[in-house]
Amino acid sequence: MKYSFYIFLVFLIPFLSCSSCKEDGAGYGPFNDRFPVEFNFYKISDEIATRIYTSDGNEITYTLPEREAELDKQMTTAQNQITYIKLLGPDQSEIKGKYLDGITEVILDAKYSLSGSVYTFSKDLITQVLKYNATRNADTLTMKGICCVRYNNGVRKGRSTTIQVSGYTLDDEKAKTQGSDTLYYRIFNVLLSKK
Question: Alpha helix (H) ranges present in the chain?
Fold first, then answer.
């Protein structure tokens, strides 16, 4: 009788250990992630045709080539905005990219939250809180970007190419448009693929 109990234990122990392994291997969240999860820059997509916005609220599609070359050149900066996003745990991430100049590298440790398939990354910089949004579709993250240049009577006032983040959205750029300013802009998606 003692032997049958020990034999039963010998068969039971591997079964229990396999059961617990199965539960641990399920992963975290709706995408069953096993951390760290890294998403690297893949490509720019869904770039809209250049549009013009003026302070009187008029907004039209731009059909002349005058500013196109400048915006085309800035779109190379767009590819450098996010190098990768690494999910380190259920609420911690690391974002590597470049500043608005497209040259100076930056690595941010950022908290994030997940609602359905939408990630919200936030970083407190004392002077402001940066907030990025990304939408996930299985192995791809998509972030909105903006490329714009502002002119006043033929004189350039400023330009920017960035992932849309608090303080740097299209609405923010439109709000800065004054009197005889003209804002030329494009909206695009930055796609990152899971490594």
Answer: 2-24, 68-78, 170-175
